[in-house]
């Protein structure tokens, strides 16, 4: 694999996995502290949402870079094993889920932030998107770490 393409791929997967782990850790701790301080759910959501929204933009860039690097590898790598195809699949599936997370879930959530505290219907829609985003991002993280685990696997020669 071309070293530049491999480096871009590894960085993108690291952002998707490691960045997601970090942002979830931060947000969970902010929520715990908010609940302990007696803050209402909407106030805690308003504090956490910008973190996820900003991270989703970074993750979106990483997903695009991941797709480009895997496509580049597909067309330039003459030796492809079953593991390579599995890696392509996990990478692309992870990237697609990040695209859904960033464009389909957090982008609408960002638009809802100004009305979230004053409009109960908007708050309910926000909560629905938030709960949907959890398994989407979680699955993207698992697929990213699986793809990272397949890095550097070479086709066995007979």
Task: Give an overview of the whole structure.
The protein has one domain (3-149). 85% of the residues lie in helices and 0% in strands. It is built from four helices and no strands. The chain has helices spanning 3-36, 41-76, 82-116, 120-149. The longest helix is centred in the middle third of the chain and has 36 residues, at 41-76. The model has no long low-confidence stretch (mean pLDDT 91).
Helix content: over 70%
Alpha-carbon distance between the termini? 21 Å
Tell me the count of domains.
Answer: 1
| Mean pLDDT across every amino acid position | 91
Q: What gross morphology would you assign? A: elongated
Radius of gyration: 18 Å
Task: Indicate the low-confidence ranges by residue numbers.
Answer: none
**How many individual β-strands?**
0
What structural class do you assign from the helix and strand content? mainly alpha
Query: What's the story with the biggest beta sheet?
Result: none
**Number of helical segments?**
4
Strand content: under 5%
**Which sequence of SSEs, written as H and E, runs from N to C?**
HHHH
